[in-house]
Structures are given as structure tokens and as C-alpha cells.
Write a structure and sequence with these properties.
Chain lengths: 280, 168
């Protein structure tokens, strides 16, 4: 729309836009600008925040044209670089065998038109409590590779997520890659989500991994970060008790989408269903 | 590294519907506004401006993108396709647009340009979609007129006819 002054209306606040060619340049800039900088990859969380002026960074560092960040590799884990889109991972031909949980969860992320731009690492760095990818990373006990001018460090999902939209990433660090452990022999994985419509924020999302020895269950959408429990192979009333205890341990809140009580009930019911199928 | 300083106008160039185009903008200008205000390409509509409604969906390097969640400077050097680029080769509507007309898949038309661009990308990735897949793809677009039934029919029909044409 034309502005009243004959100029143009622009939604986002003012910032310098810096397009870097290498990761070294990116971490140099992060060292220089720290909290004043935001890393831009797909922009599917950052741009809405800029448009609503919930974020007002001084500089944006666009990393999408850095060589090497668009790589996916599978060694001991599925390693996904910072510029890899959710759509690119979803279309990986071997994903179902490497990580059945990721293959199930990815189609639940927002919409086709957003996954084509949104990145895997971006969603994890954003740490929205109801988002699917942080949940999957937590359920699989994956890790985040952080790079700064000083070097690299690797943080497990449990240490990385520290609260709502909050992580242990330091202001001078780039989330360079994330690692999802590959599914083991005899491991079964599953995903279940309740949302008001497909693609909406999850009211409750569950990700589970079951081996002959244990059950690992992660809950998203309820607390301020993904919550994970590990049990022996519970069944029957012991499983019900475990799920009930888990539901009450979460800091469930009322919001316009669902009450805290409904969320606890969804954890019990969806948890029962999901684990029932995986242990069958 | 390329630096675009805040508050200053910078040249941004990309290939729009097969033609090299250039305009000037601040780093914070959205691609949706750049297309409409700088390049005069007003086929791309602007609705919610935070990525929910889908009206501004365009293709960037053949992948769908919300133009309102993309900065114009991010599109530098890219291939951008909008509804203005859809045609049958002789200046008429393409098969998808014709099917939308046949099935009353639009009324006010505000959401249509975004839906058409999504469909083009979707049908390339999913040439044999079932109704559920079409509806999931459409969940990324809000249409307040049609109730979606005509849109679904039009897309399924074009998917079938393009499959036939590719086997012929």
C-alpha cells in the first residue's frame, strides 16, 4: 500500500542486511554484533516476528548462500546443515529408514508452502514449545552443533532447550547443524499430534521411541519446552499411572486453543494409543 | 559478503517470469511489496502479511514461498514466478486457470493467484495426488468464498489431464 506521505508502507523495522558467503564470515559478524544480530535462513519464524515488530535486530545475517550449509549427511547420525529446508529433508529418499520419527513428524510442520522455505535448524534455534522439530530432537536425544569464532561445541537437546523460545545458544554462536541419531535395530518410533486444523500449532504433540528394553516419550505443546521421560517397557495400569504422573508433572496452561485439563487428558489418551501401537 | 545498509535504497535484480527486472528498495522491504510497488506486478496479493493466508504465495527457484515472509533482497539473483507468468503460450489462460474457471474455483479471486502458484509447485512434486494430499496442500491457503470444493475438483482434474498428456 502507498503510505500517506507518498512513500511506501513497510512492515519490518529497520536493519542492515548482510549476506555472507562463508560460515567464518557469519561467526565474525555474530562475534561483533552479538544480541543485536539475528541469523536469517528460511525466515519462516523470524519474518513474522519482524513484520509484527516483536523482534527489532540491528542486523540480519543471511546464511543461506554459505557453501556447505545445505548438506544432509548420514554417518552415525543424520546431520542436517543450517540451510537445509524442511522440504528438502522431507523429500530425502532414505529418510523413512534412517529416521521414521522425522518422516512422520515433518508433514505436520505448518504447510507445504512454509516447509519449502523454513529450515530444520531454524525451527530448532527458534525453540517454539509446540514445534515438531525440537520435540523430535529431544525424543531422539539428538544434539545441536554450535559454532563461534572461538570454536565448536556440541549440546544435547536436553541442555539446548532452556525455556519458551529460549536456548543455551550464546549470542556469538551459530547453530551450524543438528544431529538426529539414526533409528537402531529393533527400535520403533511414532508420532502423534492433536491440533485444531492440520498445520496449526500443536495443542499436544507426542514423539516416542520404543526398544525391547525401554520406552522413551517426549511431549510438546504443553510445557515451555519439550519434556522427555524414559521408562522400562510399561504396560497396562503401570503405563496408565506413568502417563498420569507425566501429565501432572507438566506445567500445562489454559489458552484459547485448549485448557490445561484437556492438555493433560490428551497426553494420557494419545500417549496410551501411541505406546500401545509401538509395543504391540 | 554483501552489505545492504539500513535506510538506504539498494538495487535488487531477479528474473521475474522469465524477464530480468530490477528495482530499488531498503533492506527491510518485503518481496510482496517490492513486486507490487517497485515492479508493478500487482497479481500477487497481500492479505495477512504474516504468512498465514497464502494470498502472496509466489515461486522462488521453483519452490513456493510467502512473498510477505521474504525480503526483496533475499530474492537477489533468483528466479521468481508469479501469476502474471501463467499462460497457455498464446496469451490465454493455462490449463489450471481454465479448470479453476470451469469449476467455479474462485469467486472474489483475492486468494487465487497464491493458490495457483502453490498448485504449480505441488503438481510438479506430486503429479498423482489424491484428494487428501490436495486438501493438505490447500491448508496453506485461506479462501473465504468457495468452500474449497471447486478448487479441489479443478486441481484433481488438471493433475489427471497433465498425466495423460505426459504419457501421450
Amino acid at each position: 500500500m502507498d503510505g500517506a506521505d507518498g512513500g511506501w508502507c513497510v512492515k519490518p523495522p529497520v536493519f542492515d542486511y548482510l549476506r555472507v558467503d562463508t560460515v567464518d564470515e557469519a561467526v565474525e559478524l555474530l562475534a561483533k554484533y552479538g544480541e543485536d544480530a539475528r541469523v536469517l535462513a528460511g525466515g519462516q519464524s523470524l519474518l513474522p516476528m519482524l513484520n509484527m515488530r516483536l523482534a527489532q535486530p540491528r542486523v540480519l545475517i543471511d546464511i543461506t548462500r554459505c557453501a556447505g550449509l545445505d548438506r544432509i549427511s548420514a554417518g552415525g547420525a543424520l546431520e542436517v546443515g543450517a540451510a537445509v529446508t524442511q522440504a528438502a529433508l522431507e523429500r530425502r529418499g532414505t529418510l523413512q529408514a534412517e529416521s521414521p520419527l522425522l518422516a512422520r513428524a515433518l508433514p505436520h510442520i505448518s504447510h507445504f508452502q512454509v516447509r519449502s522455505r523454513g529450515t530444520v535448524c531454524g525451527s530448532i534455534a527458534h525453540a517454539e514449545p509446540s514445534a515438531e522439530l525440537p520435540l523430535v530432537l529431544a525424543a531422539l536425544n539428538g544434539s545441536v552443533s554450535l559454532r563461534s569464532r572461538k570454536g565448536r561445541r556440541e549440546l544435547g537437546a536436553g541442555a539446548f532447550f532452556t525455556g519458551m523460545l529460549a536456548t543455551a545458544r550464546r549470542a556469538d554462536e551459530l547453530v551450524e547443524a543438528v544431529r538426529f541419531p539414526l533409528a537402531g535395530q529393533g527400535e520403533r518410533q511414532g508420532f502423534s499430534e492433536f491440533s485444531l486444523r492440520h498445520g496449526d500449532f500443536a495443542v499436544v504433540a507426542l514423539a516416542a521411541s520404543v526398544t525391547p528394553a525401554r520406552i522413551r516419550l517426549a511431549v510438546g505443546g504443553v510445557d515451555d519446552r519439550p519434556r522427555v521421560v524414559e521408562w522400562p517397557r510399561l504396560s497396562g495400569s503401570a503405563l496408565d499411572d506413568g502417563l498420569n504422573e507425566l501429565a501432572w508433572s507438566l506445567d500445562a496452561r489454559n489458552d484459547p486453543h485448549a485448557s490445561a485439563r484437556q492438555r493433560r487428558q490428551l497426553v494420557r489418551r494419545l500417549g496410551r494409543e501411541l505406546i500401545g501401537v509401538l509395543c504391540a | 559478503m554483501k552489505r545492504y545498509v539500513a535506510g538506504e535504497k539498494h538495487a535488487v535484480a531477479f528474473t521475474l517470469n522469465g524477464r530480468e527486472r530490477q528495482g530499488w528498495c531498503e533492506p527491510r522491504m518485503l518481496l510482496s511489496d517490492f513486486l507490487r510497488q517497485q515492479l508493478g506486478a500487482t497479481g500477487t496479493h497481500v492479505g495477512c502479511e504474516h504468512g498465514v493466508c497464502g494470498a502472496c504465495t509466489v515461486l522462488i527457484n521453483d519452490e513456493p514461498a510467502r512473498a510477505c515472509l521474504t525480503l526483496a533482497v533475499q530474492a537477489e539473483g533468483a528466479r521468481v514466478d508469479t501469476v502474471e507468468g501463467l499462460h497457455d503460450g498464446a496469451g490465454g489462460l493455462n490449463d489450471l486457470q481454465q479448470a479453476f474457471r470451469r469449476h467455479h474455483a474462485l469467486q472474489c479471486g483475492f486468494c487465487t493467484s497464491g493458490i495457483l502458484m502453490s498448485c504449480e509447485a505441488f503438481l510438479r512434486h506430486t503429479p498423482c495426488p489424491d484428494e487428501k494430499q490436495v486438501r493438505e496442500m490447500l491448508s496453506g491457503h485461506l479462501c473465504r468464498c468457495t468452500g474449497y470444493a471447486g478448487i479441489v475438483k479443478a486441481i484433481l482434474e488438471v493433475a489427471a489431464s497433465r498425466r495423460e498428456a505426459s504419457h501421450a
